[in-house]
Amino acid sequence: MYLFLFVVMICLFDYFFFFFFFWFFVLFGFLDCSWFGGFVFFDSLNFVFLSFMSVFVLGFIGLSESSGSLVFYSCLIVMFSVFFFYSGSFLLFYIFYELTMLPVLFCLLGFGRQVEKISACYYLIFYTLFFGMPYLFFYSRVFFFLNFVYYDFFMSYEYIFFLSLCFLVKFPVYFLHVWLPKVHVEAPTKTSMILAGIMLKLGGVGMYRICKSLNFSGLEFFYFFSLMSMIFCSFICMTQSDVKSLAAYSSICHMGFVLLSEISMVYYGKSMSLVMMLGHGYTSVLMFYFIGEFYHISNSRLLYYLRGYFSMSILFSLFFCLVMVSNFGFPFSISFFSEYLMLNWCSSIYYVMFFFVFIYYLVSFYYSIYVMVCFFIGLKVNYVFEVRSIFCLSLIFMIYNFFWFVFII
């Protein structure tokens, strides 16, 4: 184990070695084995797919980012996230969960351009540590042992509530989401990509672990949280003039649907939540990438000033169009497949829930189309490098999962 950690620390100072090392490390997860005395435990292929997405996004960031410091901090976040997915004990599970916050703080304080980055750091630290304290309390009082696979025992409703607060912050759900738009607005582009594409999946994995301990009593509370996240944040997106803040609230909407899938208590619910997390990870990364490119050109994030890019780069506009239509679940995207199945579940279980989900789809379709049209229409004289859009092609393939056509043919 010490040799493995030593190799990882050496690879941190060289991006290419780090990328290829973790690429092969994730591929070993398909062998379903345990390494280093339980320190790394491959217990589910779902976590292998999430770690594959993390390393894939890291490769995209390394190609598109010129700052070595931001790439180094991105490598740290990916390393902590992959170890979090494969943690073999309760304590390591919490340690790697909290360690992902430190590189984000360094990126905020070191590369943020406005004074409000300090208040954003306060919000991030407060929400993460304060709501993570119940997890440590229950760890020391109830299950003070080191090895685990899942929470495969039933617990009371109050116990589940306090235990889930630690992970609902990183989803995040409505009422616990205040830190995310502030951090996104003040963070540099690559940090926002890591935050939306990888760090928001930590809360999903944490809830994935404890979902087995949920019983059917008290699920209405989580239904309320998820539906409020979807509905309220969709309407908030319609009132945003800052495009980066709009993308942040859009992430809260999608992760609310992920929470609804995880607690659905049906056979395909957890699988569809995994597919939703994968689809949201690739889509949100490209959304923040395009918004960052537009900001570097026009020096503004206001929706009114980001116009006329269709007349400058058709390829850039095509990729942005594909990303935005994937944001509201366009057919052939992997998010459409998962959301369609969960929409059938909502219509078959609760008709009132189907009504709320329908409102969510309607509003998300509206603001996605509105942003896409505003970015295209207008006159601008700035120039966009079409070569940089070629980097997005690999993520576009993952968003729409063109491997399906192999089975169709």
From TrEMBL:
<feature type="transmembrane region" description="Helical">
    <location>
        <begin position="70"/>
        <end position="86"/>
    </location>
</feature>
<feature type="transmembrane region" description="Helical">
    <location>
        <begin position="222"/>
        <end position="239"/>
    </location>
</feature>
<dbReference type="InterPro" id="IPR001750">
    <property type="entry name" value="ND/Mrp_TM"/>
</dbReference>
<keyword id="KW-1133">Transmembrane helix</keyword>
<dbReference type="InterPro" id="IPR003918">
    <property type="entry name" value="NADH_UbQ_OxRdtase"/>
</dbReference>
<dbReference type="GO" id="GO:0008137">
    <property type="term" value="F:NADH dehydrogenase (ubiquinone) activity"/>
</dbReference>
<feature type="transmembrane region" description="Helical">
    <location>
        <begin position="349"/>
        <end position="378"/>
    </location>
</feature>
<protein>
    <recommendedName>
        <fullName>NADH-ubiquinone oxidoreductase chain 4</fullName>
        <ecNumber>7.1.1.2</ecNumber>
    </recommendedName>
</protein>
<keyword id="KW-0496">Mitochondrion</keyword>
<comment type="function">
    <text>Core subunit of the mitochondrial membrane respiratory chain NADH dehydrogenase (Complex I) which catalyzes electron transfer from NADH through the respiratory chain, using ubiquinone as an electron acceptor. Essential for the catalytic activity and assembly of complex I.</text>
</comment>
<feature type="transmembrane region" description="Helical">
    <location>
        <begin position="159"/>
        <end position="180"/>
    </location>
</feature>
<feature type="transmembrane region" description="Helical">
    <location>
        <begin position="36"/>
        <end position="63"/>
    </location>
</feature>
<dbReference type="GO" id="GO:0042773">
    <property type="term" value="P:ATP synthesis coupled electron transport"/>
</dbReference>
<keyword id="KW-1278">Translocase</keyword>
<keyword id="KW-0472">Membrane</keyword>
<keyword id="KW-0520">NAD</keyword>
<keyword id="KW-0812">Transmembrane</keyword>
<feature type="transmembrane region" description="Helical">
    <location>
        <begin position="92"/>
        <end position="111"/>
    </location>
</feature>
<comment type="similarity">
    <text>Belongs to the complex I subunit 4 family.</text>
</comment>
<keyword id="KW-0249">Electron transport</keyword>
<dbReference type="GO" id="GO:0003954">
    <property type="term" value="F:NADH dehydrogenase activity"/>
</dbReference>
<feature type="transmembrane region" description="Helical">
    <location>
        <begin position="274"/>
        <end position="292"/>
    </location>
</feature>
<dbReference type="GO" id="GO:0048039">
    <property type="term" value="F:ubiquinone binding"/>
</dbReference>
<dbReference type="GO" id="GO:0031966">
    <property type="term" value="C:mitochondrial membrane"/>
</dbReference>
<feature type="transmembrane region" description="Helical">
    <location>
        <begin position="7"/>
        <end position="30"/>
    </location>
</feature>
<feature type="transmembrane region" description="Helical">
    <location>
        <begin position="390"/>
        <end position="408"/>
    </location>
</feature>
<dbReference type="Pfam" id="PF00361">
    <property type="entry name" value="Proton_antipo_M"/>
</dbReference>
<dbReference type="GO" id="GO:0015990">
    <property type="term" value="P:electron transport coupled proton transport"/>
</dbReference>
<keyword id="KW-0830">Ubiquinone</keyword>
<keyword id="KW-0679">Respiratory chain</keyword>
<feature type="domain" description="NADH:quinone oxidoreductase/Mrp antiporter transmembrane">
    <location>
        <begin position="87"/>
        <end position="357"/>
    </location>
</feature>
<keyword id="KW-0813">Transport</keyword>
<feature type="transmembrane region" description="Helical">
    <location>
        <begin position="304"/>
        <end position="329"/>
    </location>
</feature>
<comment type="function">
    <text>Core subunit of the mitochondrial membrane respiratory chain NADH dehydrogenase (Complex I) that is believed to belong to the minimal assembly required for catalysis. Complex I functions in the transfer of electrons from NADH to the respiratory chain. The immediate electron acceptor for the enzyme is believed to be ubiquinone.</text>
</comment>
<feature type="transmembrane region" description="Helical">
    <location>
        <begin position="246"/>
        <end position="268"/>
    </location>
</feature>
<feature type="transmembrane region" description="Helical">
    <location>
        <begin position="120"/>
        <end position="139"/>
    </location>
</feature>
<feature type="transmembrane region" description="Helical">
    <location>
        <begin position="192"/>
        <end position="210"/>
    </location>
</feature>
